[in-house]
Amino acid sequence: MLYREAGQFKSSYAADQQIFPIRQDRIAVGAVLVFAFIVVPLTADQYWLSAILVPFLIFSLAAIGLNLLTGYAGQLSLGTAAFMAVGAFAAYNFLLRVPGMPVLVAFVLAGACAALVGILFGLPSLRIKGFYLAVATLAAQFFIVWALTKFGWFSNYSSSGVINAQKIEILGYRFDSPLSKYLLTLSIVAVLALAAKNMVRGTVGRSWMAVRDMDVAAEVIGFPMLRTKLSAFAVSSFYCGVAGALYAFCYLGTVEPEGFNLDLSFRILFMIILGGVGSILGSFLGAAFIVLFPIFLNSVAGPLEHAIGVKLPAGLMSNLELMIFGALIILFLIVEPHGLARLWQIGKEKLRLWPFPH
Amino acid sequence: MAFFFEVLIGGLLSGVMYSLVALGFVLIYKASGVFNFAQGAMVFFAAMAFVVLLQDHGVNFWIAFALALGMMILLGLATEKFVLRPLVNQPQITLFMATIGLTFFIEGLAQLLGGANVRGLDIGIQDEPIAAIANATGINVSRFDLAAAGVAAVLVTSLALFFSRTRIGRALRAVADDHQAALAVGIPLHQIWGIVWAVAGFVALVAGMLWGARNGVQFALTFVALKALPVLILGGFESIPGAILGGLIIGAAEKLAEVYLGPFVGGGIEGWFPYVLALLFLLVRPEGLFGEKHIDRV
Amino acid sequence: MEQRRIGEVILRLEDISLAFGGVKALSEVSFDVREHEVRAIIGPNGAGKSSMLNVINGVYHPQVGRITYRGTQRQQMVPHEAARQGIARTFQNIALFKGMSVLDNIMTGRNLKMKATILEQAIRFGRAGREELEHRRKVEEIIDFLQIQHIRRTPVGKLPYGLQKRVELARALAAEPDLLLLDEPMAGMNVEEKQDMCRFVLDVNEQYGTTIVLIEHDMGVVMDISDRVVVLDYGRKIGDGTPDDVRANKAVIDAYLGVAH
């Protein structure tokens, strides 16, 4: 009875096409935003802010980026981390080389740079599909990391390409505490997530899904194949680029190209598989899962060691983590290919009927 | 000129080893239409299992080989049963992602078994120039590379014969062509898949031993195996000769590029050159060297 | 209001030949389509009917031949260019976007009329929001016309075959095409569904004046609703004319009933 749209009649198409047409959803989204912007800053400690919430938000953004490309436009990418690297290094260089460059503008430009690189590596998608394309994105992954390491200019000639992100200052205010960084990240992610939601329910989103579901028909209907696919690559890479910039500036502070390796790309791919391919909400759920799961595993390991009185070998947990991740991916693909977001939806369906299930 | 040939031959010989890894991909792709991303992890796991048996448990070389082979076959059968069978009829891309999950699982398992450190492996062949050839022509050819290439060549030939001359091979080709039709004429589908995964495990073991002896048994072996992807793109996913030729081309091209192009851009281009080469190749010929051109029917 | 007055030739195909490798799908086929008419293409399986439609809207490119559409001559079409020129179509094996709702599928048909940039859509400000509403209204008209109101929100993958065919027609109509290509719109339907579909096709032709080229196997349907008929066999044209002409054509009878060679 709590979650029901009964009685909510739409009398205009405008009302029917709202971003969240059901009242309870609007309330829930509002509540989450209030919680994230007001309750969390008042209650969370530094560890939670800087070690869990900030990376969670950043990974969510990257996962949204990948989801736009893979989930909505159907183009599998294994090079997400490389596009994040482009964003991180571009933001660094804009701030380094352009005097008086505002940080937010640098972030946007960083996203734009990543978008350009994304378009470049997206070009083969016109001729190749599926895992052939995945190999093309692997080329991006290896090439970009190599180029950022090899050409000293990108990292201002530091050793092995390490960069130290500059201090963030917006309108005279310094974002150096964990809380301020959290709020900055949260604001950017919230705005971009909303924009992504808008895109996927507009023509551009439909063009992506059309290409994903049936590319010949999409072209016959009038979506130009090249422009549609490249727009997906561009927007997706933009999101990844901004996520990369935030990764360097609001999370780690110091990054090197090797940090954006294939493993990170896979991690983000796992987020969307677990969270839900083709779902914005799923990107958040998947990111939360991947960020929280190792913490959960470690917190289980401690008491377990205590209980059995044996010290577990150091590598054991990380290897077990790999295995469990792998097994979970397979399990999700078999049991619930639409991920946590689908489970959430099923939950909502149940709630509609509750407490009278028949 | 001698130096050029030395680089070329070195590249071709390591190319044969790429072919060997690529072969594992092709077998599985042909039989079940799955692009098995975990082939690299299987190579790593096989080498690790062998090393652990040989060094930590002091098992005799051949017994260790047999046991490791047994483990690979079990792993292959388990994969067929627990991963692929439940996912039958899913889109290819879903299967592909499942094998990425499998990759993580097998990598974790391998390191659980043998730790995260590099393990040396000595299979009794030294990585040194063959004196006779060096004296006669001035070209250094590694004894190890030559032996490895020889092993790979024997393996590739016997597999090619196995799949073209035997009943199982014929059944495999029928399955590759059309699952439903193969099932309809009474070919035991799961049995064929099981055999293919077992053979792929065997190929992974041999590849893992050769690469492991050369570079040490370590996590990086999975990256060597990833190089098989550009090989496949060149050769086409469904062609055994394609895998061989593709391996040779990639092996030779990456070595030549490293030696002759590398110095201009600061070196280290081996890591990405094969991928970019494959990418450029794809733009010209999307179906690969030997792949068939598909016509979309609408 | 009667819009249907058969006019000038708007599409002319001349000497079209199409081959895949060594297999000839079409050999030197020529015919034309007049404005506002219902033109049928018939022929046995493998006669090259679908290939013909694919040539018209640029999915396949003929090796030889000329296509003249609205006075412009070209050797081949590009699919999205054909769409831009007002050609829409449906497919023999339904080509809907399976992951999307009926409403979204039909909305895709309006894409060429939407002008908002990606950025405008991202913030859904001004033009983007307005366009969505405007086109939604038009899409609802089509939904009413084809009587599929009740399945608006259903993912198309879950619909029965007959309804999917109808949704595909709706998507094509959403583009407000001048020329509509229908590839076996009634295949696999029961009699009742066929009657509905016939009615829709004729209504589209009469109310909007849309020119229609359709492929159909059901001879009764073809003879009833089409103005002129082209007959293909083994990639060649063996007959062309009004239903009565074609019915009387010796070559056509042979192709359908079979003769000893």
What does this structure look like?
The complex is a heterotrimer of chains A (358), B (298) and C (261). Chain A has 358 residues and is an all-alpha fold. Chain A has helices at 13-16, 23-43, 46-72, 80-97, 103-122, 130-150, 178-200, 203-213, 215-221, 225-252, 262-275, 280-308, 314-335, 339-353, and strands at residues 163-164, 169-170, 173-174, 254-255. Chain A has one domain (44-353): ABC transporter involved in vitamin B12 uptake, BtuC, CATH 1.10.3470. In chain A, 73% of the residues lie in helices and 2% in strands. Chain A has a two-stranded antiparallel sheet with strand order 1-4. A two-stranded antiparallel sheet of chain A has the order 2-3. In chain A, helix 8 crosses helix 9 and helix 12 (280-308) crosses helix 14. Chain A is globular. Chain B has 298 residues and is mainly α. Chain B has a single domain, classed as ABC transporter involved in vitamin B12 uptake, BtuC (Orthogonal Bundle), CATH 1.10.3470. Helices cover 74% and strands 0% of the residues of chain B. Chain B has 13 helices and no strands. Chain B has helices at residues 2-32, 39-56, 61-84, 92-114, 131-137, 143-165, 167-177, 179-184, 189-215, 221-226, 228-235, 240-265, 273-284. In chain B, helix 1 (2-32) packs across helix 7 (167-177). Chain B is globular and about 60 Å long. The mean pLDDT of chain B is 83. Chain C folds into 2 domains: 1-86 and 177-261, 3-Layer(aba) Sandwich (Rossmann fold), CATH 3.40.50.300; 96-174, no CATH class. In chain C, 38% of the residues lie in helices and 24% in strands. In chain C, the strands form 2 sheets. Chain C has a 6-stranded mixed sheet with strand order 6-7-8-3-9-10, sandwiched between helices. Chain C has a 4-stranded antiparallel sheet with strand order 2-1-4-5, covered by helices on one side. In chain C, strand 9 (228-233) and strand 10 form a beta hairpin. The termini of chain C are far apart. The relative contact order of chain C is 0.18. The model of chain C has no long low-confidence stretch (mean pLDDT 89). Chains B and C meet through loops of B and loops of C.
